[in-house]
Every structure is written in structure tokens, then in C-alpha cells.
Design goal:
- One of its GO terms (molecular function) is acyltransferase activity, transferring groups other than amino-acyl groups.
- InterPro entries: Acyl_CoA_acyltransferase, GNAT_dom.
- This is N-acetyltransferase domain-containing protein.
- The structure is a single chain.
- By secondary structure, the chain is of the alpha+beta class.
- It is built from 4 helices and 8 strands, in the order βααββββαβαββ.
- The longest helix has 17 residues.
């Protein structure tokens, strides 16, 4: 498979939204409370793309996954109950979702690895991420990729586990 990662375009919203809806259903089926309150929605995805922070993982020309990648932009992270590994510039990963057609192929991990490359290419050496306490698949991915648990953040009214990974050139 020939995967590549790039900024999403507005014409890809229908494909992305289908993937997000599949991920919402998976979270519900897993018994997770994450994404069960109308977020994310199509408006959020459109805003991501318009801000230039929406990214797609492509298998040739097919959208296989989606994520929002932000640089130095997550106000909730300023209120961490715990301690970040670093205090400098950082990249944030939000809204990671993989198409049902591509499950079990390690694509969420690929998104994180592509994000590490993107961060280093832009001279950012920290990636921060948060997830729900009951999102077991994401917690396993973060552990496997070497993320360190740093504490808890309150995000959209809910307490979330926060992680960081330091990157090196």
C-alpha cells in the first residue's frame, strides 16, 4: 500500500465525515463516552480544513484516515493537572479517525508517525495529545508509540488523559 499524508481539501469532507461517523459508532460500540455528544461534526471538520489543520491519510487516492494537526494551539493544555515533559513549542493531534475499510492495518499509528515527521520538518520536537480514559484502542497506540502520561486536562467539559512524546532530530 502506498500511503501518504497531506492537508485535506473541502471536496473531501463527505469522505472524511463518513470516516468520522464510523469512528463515532466504534467508540459507542466499545462502550466509550468519547465523541457521543455531537462532536466532532461536519462543521468542525470544515473549520479544520479551512484553518489548514485538517489532514488526510491516503491510500493512493482513497481517504483512509483523518486527523487535525495543530501547532502551539490548545488552550486546554495550559491547565494540565500534572506536568508536561517540555514547555516549548509543540504539535497537537486531535480527531484521529480511520475508515472501517482500513481497520487493523496500523493506520492510526501511521498518522502519528507522519505527524512526527511533519513536526520535525517544522522544527517542533514535542507532540501532545489527549484522549478519553475509556478509549482503549487510542491508549494502546499511545503506549506502543512511546507517549508518556503527563496528567489530565479538561476538554469540552470532560476530563481527559494527556500524553506527550519528545522528538529528536
Amino acid at each position: 500500500m502506498n500511503y501518504h499524508f497531506r492537508k485535506a481539501t473541502l471536496v473531501e469532507i463527505p469522505q472524511i465525515w463518513t470516516i468520522i461517523q464510523q469512528a463515532i459508532a466504534r467508540r459507542k460500540n466499545d462502550g466509550s463516552q468519547q465523541w457521543q455528544d455531537g462532536y466532532p461534526n461536519e462543521t468542525v471538520i470544515q473549520q479544520d480544513i479551512e484553518k489548514g489543520i485538517g489532514y488526510v491519510l491516503l491510500d493512493d487516492n482513497t481517504v483512509a484516515g483523518y486527523a487535525a494537526i495543530l501547532f502551539n494551539d490548545e488552550p486546554a493544555y495550559e491547565q494540565l493537572k500534572g506536568s508536561w515533559l517540555t514547555n516549548g513549542d509543540f504539535v497537537v493531534v486531535h480527531r484521529v479517525a480511520i475508515s472501517d475499510d482500513y481497520l487493523g492495518k496500523g493506520l492510526a499509528q501511521k498518522i502519528f508517525l507522519f505527524t512526527e515527521d511533519l513536526a520535525i520538518d517544522n522544527n517542533f520536537f514535542s507532540i501532545k495529545v489527549d484522549t478519553n480514559f475509556d478509549n482503549i484502542p487510542m491508549l494502546k497506540i499511545l503506549e506502543k508509540l512511546g507517549y508518556t502520561y503527563c496528567g489530565e486536562v479538561t476538554f469540552r467539559g470532560g476530563v481527559r488523559k494527556a500524553f506527550e512524546k519528545e522528538l529528536f532530530k
